[in-house]
């Protein structure tokens, strides 16, 4: 299976839009009246959603975005904290003239989506939070993310990039050679290497605790919310998902078995059905 096989029958565009001083890579597909914004995780990129774009584009206008300092979107400078990610997302919506969008946020993307929904409820329709981060500061998990990412970025060894991707999966077979190639190339872009400390700043305890998505913030989320969690998520145990569900008014929770940190990829058909039913 190839990334382009997944997208072969999808009419799409990939552009680099000027957004808040940062040329931002975006994959757009579909022409629905409602918009869905897809936000990936830490050190990720829009290819995290290649198994989802086609299904979503049948009903919505889809925007899969390389977030600030990620993929092929450069960071103009400084640490990448949650308020900056939120500002970048809002700047993108404003640039496209989108008043309100549904958001599918995975990991870091879910953290950003939750904060955006809490602080700017008028801009968010519905939320699909996919193994979202940002509610706890677990030193062991933070060290695993920081160490594995830095090693893969600072060493030109495809095996380290593959290992970083395999951390996300219950079944390593979901890490294709092509996906490794895509991420390895991103990881070794000069701008990405130069900015790795700014990208990983949320894996430092002081920064993370200041930016955590608090119970008070989650209680302010008005958007109908679906949380999708992998039973074998290596970056967060199932009780974390239940606490988030209890904190967000009316939130629904789906836990997928034999699934790691990328439910939208490992169980794409099931995820697409759950998410599209919820968004519709």
From TrEMBL:
Keywords: Hydrolase. Residues 35-268 form the AB hydrolase-1 domain. It is an enzyme of class 3 (hydrolase). One of its GO terms (cellular component) is membrane. Signal peptide: none annotated. It holds the Pfam family Abhydrolase_1. Transmembrane segments: none annotated. GO terms for molecular function: monoacylglycerol lipase activity. Gene3D superfamilies: alpha/beta hydrolase. Its EC number is 3.7.1.14. GO terms for biological process: acylglycerol catabolic process. This is 2-hydroxy-6-oxonona-2,4-dienedioate hydrolase. It comes from Actinomycetospora corticicola.
């Amino acid at each position: 299976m190839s990334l382009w096989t997944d997208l072969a029958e999808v009419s799409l565009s990939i552009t680099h839009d000027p957004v808040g001083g940062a040329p931002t890579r975006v994959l757009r597909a579909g022409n629905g009246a409602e918009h869905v914004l897809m936000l990936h995780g830490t050190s990720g990129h829009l290819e995290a959603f290649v198994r989802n774009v086609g299904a979503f584009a049948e009903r919505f206008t889809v925007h899969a975005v390389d977030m600030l300092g990620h993929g092929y979107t450069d960071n103009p400078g400084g640490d990448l904290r949650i308020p900056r990610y939120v500002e970048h997302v809002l700047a993108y919506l404003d640039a496209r003239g989108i008043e309100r969008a549904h958001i599918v946020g995975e990991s870091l993307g879910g953290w950003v989506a939750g904060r955006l929904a809490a602080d700017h409820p008028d801009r968010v329709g519905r939320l699909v939070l996919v193994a979202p981060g940002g509610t706890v500061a677990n030193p062991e998990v933070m060290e695993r993310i920081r160490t594995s990412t830095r090693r893969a970025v600072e060493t030109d060894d495809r095996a380290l990039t593959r290992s970083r991707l395999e951390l996300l999966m219950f079944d390593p077979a979901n890490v294709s050679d092509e996906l490794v190639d895509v991420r390895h190339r991103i990881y070794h872009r000069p701008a990405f290497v130069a900015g790795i400390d700014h990208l990983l700043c949320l894996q430092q305890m002081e920064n993370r605790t200041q930016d955590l998505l608090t119970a008070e913030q989650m209680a302010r989320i008005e958007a109908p919310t679906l949380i999708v969690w992998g039973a074998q998520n290596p970056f967060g145990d199932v009780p974390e998902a239940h606490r988030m569900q209890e904190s967000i008014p009316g939130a629904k929770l789906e836990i997928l078995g034999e699934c790691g940190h990328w439910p939208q990829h490992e169980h794409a058909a099931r995820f697409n059905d759950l998410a599209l039913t919820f968004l519709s």
